[in-house]
Amino acid sequence: MGQLFQVHNLTKRFGGLTAINNLTFEVEEKEIFSIIGPNGAGKSTVFNCINGLYKPEEGTMLFKKQDLVGKRPDQIASLGIARTFQNLELFANMTTLDNLMLGRHKAMKAGIFSIAGLSIRRSPAAREEMANRRKVEEIIDFLELESARDVYVANLPYGKQKLVELGRALAMEPELILLDEPAAGLTQEEKEEMIYSIRDIRDLLGITVILIEHNMQMVKYISDRILAINFGKMITCGDVEDVLNHPEVISAYLGEETEEDVNTINE
Amino acid sequence: MRDLKTDYFEDIQLFRNKVQLFWCVVLLLFLFSYPFLVKAYYLTVFNLMAVNIIVALGLNLLIGNTGQISLGHAGFVAIGAYTTVLLLKSGVPFIVALIAAAIAAGFFGLLLGIPSLKLEGPYLAIATLAFGLAVTIIIGRMDFLGGRMGFSVPKINLTWTGLNYDRSLYYVILIITIISVFVARNILKSRIGRSFQAIRDSDIAASAIGVNITRYKLYSFAISAFYAGVAGSLWALYLGFINPTLFTFILSINFLAIVVIGGLGFITGSILGAVVMTYLNLQLQNVPDIPVIGPLLQQFSEAFMMPTGITNISWVLTGLILILIVLFEPLGLYGIWLRIRIYWKRWPF
Questions:
Q1: Distance (Å, rounded) from C-alpha B56 to C-alpha B47?
Q2: Contact A36, A230 (CB under 8 A)
Q3: Contact: B204, A89; criterion CB under 8 Å
Q4: DSSP summary character for residue B241
Q5: Which of A53, A63, A214, B265 is most buried, judged by most C-beta within 10 A?
Q6: Domains, chain A, ranges and CATH?
Q7: Continuous segment of H or E residues that includes residue B103
Q8: Is the confidence at residue B102, as pLDDT, over 90?
Q9: Residues on chain A touching B186 (C-beta within 8 angstroms)
Q10: pLDDT number for residue A49
Q11: Which range of residues forms the domain containing residue B237?
């Protein structure tokens, strides 16, 4: 297995605040790679840099030997990187089907001059539309979204909306998928389903996954390797057990025991 | 079980089922026999409706589907109208003039789209408003465009149809309107239309799935202006004269009102809005003839607004309708239409 994605010395500043500080990590092909860290550690900022929404000040991000720095989000998307968002960025006034069809946007070519043919069954535009529709149906089947197909996304329950967003990312047939807190706000059952879906994405579809997650149980259960960051800096990176038992990781999550705390407890 | 789908093509085909096809054929039969059923005045009414439909289709694509705003569409209509007249005067055949007018308007739409890449909401509204105002002022200052007096539009040669001029013109406008509706509908069903809606709902997500926001925003502005150009071309043709005062700021607002009242984001909405608003605008001019209420309204208007009277009343009523629609039926006339359809489908329950 080769390396699919390398981040080298990534630095992102917002004015005086350094959100990401000299971050370096690699992601292997077909692994589930988790990024953990307390709130405000810069996890989503890493995604926004990879995805092109933010422009990092320093560093390189090599995806299949191409540097992503300076590319537009849509260019990065067409290289084969898909993502979901922490607070859902869905096309709320469109149906599930249209949301997923939008995931096929890059795979389709029909331009303004060929759309008149859309009404003719054998025209290239109509055939392209139907072929991509078939792909979308496969994803609807994969995520069991049949009941939501023709429903406006705004009217779907939160758990289903999360799945639609995942489906939209999958519809792009990416090689790398960035999942920003896929289990946040889900019920226990939905969380379990989400875990199976993410596993299937890797095992059945062969897509590499980078995951941001707060739910440690899930991270522990699902990840191949973990990167822990705090204040934009890497704490440690490596195998699941090593990272989760790392003293700095524990203190970053639970807070450090100060002398004062000990005194309070003793009293 | 009429709506059970068995084929992916059914989602993109023109008519959802035989019932819809039947009613469309009925409507077309009516429209094509219309000139032989009514007086010439009602041909003008239809022409005006058709022009408004075409502008509304384009504007709805921009406002309702892409989520951008334009308060300057009268400017594009003016560009379309003037381009057509200039070309007709120099002896170019109408079909070429029409396409050139649409392309010219589309080009200016593209230019106006550039600020939309940086500006949003109220800022874009002001920028487009300024464009609309500038176009009429510039045209008014150019002598070769007829200046403030404007100029008359040469009649095109339609004798080959074997009908009188008014009727042939009606058919020309009807056919172009049908094509416009068809194209707009297919744009919305295609990946281009979906991208527009993606930009409207979430531009971050749209870019993350690979939609080139710059390109599609410009597309939207250009297509929208293209439609306005076509409409301007046809409008000049049946009015017979044009001058800059036709293309006022109020006209742009009227287009906006049509789209909002009709139903943002829906083609049926554009059509319903244009038909109803055109009809209302014409009918409201007859308000003084209504017994009791008419003179009262006129007195009221003359006392509290402008002495010219009745145009104000029509605007007050338009405003009132706009407020009521936004309050009670956000989907506009299209929403009402939907409810009627659902009611009949479920009848007698």
A1: 14
A2: no
A3: yes
A4: E
A5: B265
A6: 1-80+174-267 (3.40.50.300), 93-170 (no CATH)
A7: helix B94-116
A8: yes
A9: 115-116, 118-119
A10: 94
A11: 40-246
- Interchain contact A162–B (C-beta under 8 A): no
Q: Does B195 touch chain A (CB under 8 A)?
A: yes
* A interface test, pick of B65, B191, B214 with most A CB neighbours within 10 Å: B191
Contacts of A62 (CB under 8 A, 6+ apart): A5, A6, A7, A8, A68
Instruction: Pick A115's closest partner by Cβ from B187, B207, B209.
Output: B187
Interface of A with B in 167-226 (CB under 8 A): 168-169, 172
SS3 per-residue string spanning chain A: CCEEEEEEEEEEEECCEEEEEEEEEEEECCCEEEEECCCCCCHHHHHHHHCCCCCCCEEEEEECCEECCCCCHHHHHHHCEEECCCCCCCCCCCEHHHHHHHHCHHHCCCCCCCHHHHHCCCCHHHHHHHHHHHHHHHHHHHCCCHHHCCCEHHHCCHHHHHHHHHHHHHHCCCCEEEEECCCCCCCHHHHHHHHHHHHHHHHCCCCEEEEECCCHHHHHHHCCEEEEEECCEEEEEEEHHHHHCCHHHHHHHHCCCCHHHHHHHHC
pLDDT at site A263: 67
DSSP-derived secondary structure letter, B16: S
ipTM, two decimals, is 0.89
What percent of chain B has pLDDT above 90? 57
Q: Within a domain: residue B263?
A: no
pLDDT of residue B1: 41
**B9 within domain boundaries:** no
Could you tell me if residue B163 is left (phi over 0), alpha (psi between -120 and 50 degrees) or otherwise beta? beta
**Is B203 among the domain residues?**
yes
pLDDT value, residue A10 = 92
Per-residue pLDDT tens over the stretch A62-88: 998 889 998 999 999 999 999 999 889
Q: Which of A50, A115, A172 is the best substitution to test chain B (most B C-beta atoms within 10 A)?
A: A115
Count of structural domains within chain B = 1
Sign of CA dihedral B328, B333, B334, B337: positive
Q: Are B211 and B195 in contact (CB under 8 A)?
A: yes
Looking at the DSSP bridge assignments, the partners of residue A3 are A28
Closest CB to B205 among A91, A118, A130? A91
Average pLDDT over chain A reads 89
Burial A181-212 (b: 16+ CB within 10 A, else e): bbbbebeeebbebbbebbeebbeeeebbbbbb
| A66 C-beta neighbours (distance < 10 Å), count | 11
Mean pLDDT of A224-239: 90
Set of chain B residues whose Cβ sits within 8 Å of the Cβ of A90: 201-202, 205
Which residues, other chains included, contact A53 with Cβ-Cβ below 8 Å and sequence gap of 6+?
A73, B204, B207, B208
Q: How far apart are CA B200 and CA B121, in angstroms?
A: 12
- Would B331 be classed as within a structural domain? no
Subunit contact A85:B12, Cβ cutoff 8 A: no
Residue A187, both tokens: 């019920």
pLDDT digits (tens, 9 = 90+) for B145-157: 887 788 888 888 8
Residues forming beta bridges with residue A62, ordered by sequence position:
A6, A67
Nearest alpha carbon to residue B257 among B78, B116, B52: B52
